[in-house]
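Sample entry (396 residues):
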Amino acid sequence: MHHGANYYFMKLIIFLLAPGFTGMWFFRVSPNHLKAQVTMAVPTTVAHHKIQAAILLDVSNSMDGLIEQAKAQLWNMVNVMGKATCDNITPQIEIALYEYGRPTNNAREGYVKQLSNFTTDLDNLSKTLFTIKTNGGDEYCGHVIWSSLKELHWDTAATNYKVIFIAGNEDFLQGDITYTKACAEATKKGVIVNTIYCGDKMQGISEHWNLAGECGSGSFTNINQDAAIDDIATPYDSTLFSLNDQLNNTYIGYGAAGSSSFMLQDRVDKMNYAMNKSVAVKRVAVKGKKELYKNNWWDLVDAATADSMFVTKVELKTLPDSLQKKSRAELQVIVKEKNMQRGKIQKAIGDLSTKREMYIASEKARSLTINKSSTLENEIEKIIRSQAKRFRIVIP
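Predicted structure, serialized as tokens:
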């Protein structure tokens, strides 16, 4: 019996819609280059869990300390989220960044600016934080919350933890978009809004920061934005920095962004180290977790892990000079060796990072001189640990 093209097309549609089949062809465009790659998703019956966090920072003149703490807390926040599991699956972590209160930003947009959309590119996110400078202006909290809710692609699954952290001071009710309007949108999208006032708690209440903390069952807290960042030296730090250098040598740049991203990785290491050694060690701990620190869009080893055929497709002329004349078979061997080396180094980093955390916890427990002030880092960690439980997320 003869069947026309439409018959086979209908059979294909029925097959694709069959229960249990979730694979499909899609284009994925990396954050760092525009070259689209056709990828085949692996059929699975398990939905991927996500944690989406948007950080909204007041950049007015009094917030220099807040920005310094924000640079530092990134790695602790990611590290804490990276310990999370839901149904024994590590959630995908996406972070977005906004600033508000800069007078040179668009007045019609409430002096609000998106600095980073939801991303897993932690190097670029850290670099962006280091570029933020304070400059006095009007702080429209309702507007920045609203903007983040409307502009970002929030996941629609009710089972995923979606959260906003807004930090700053001055009256929360400024601007032409009310916090109630923003709260209604947050509730509709299942996003929890947490307010973090920089200063005295009672002053924060008088300036209405506690009101939006009730939005989407969120929280209100306060911090000392000028508190010094803890810098507790441990016996494990020098070894962790050495392992980080070894880890960087397992990366192989490819594509238009390969060379610049490879150099950025080292530059961001140095930025964090120059700021605070403890912060830099926390970055190393994150880099030691393959579930957290992925660079498929520029690193050949990560790309080959995500797609076993990638080495057969990569443009050789975009590789480092020493690899451009290698055969595909030779390249496969090199990538496999680098991947094995990386796994061993990351395991060593993970083991030492655990020992380091235990050492610091012990030092804090017995010390009377270590800073006990509330900071952006420890308050965000407390909030994440508490709220994640609502989504069956376990953080040890």
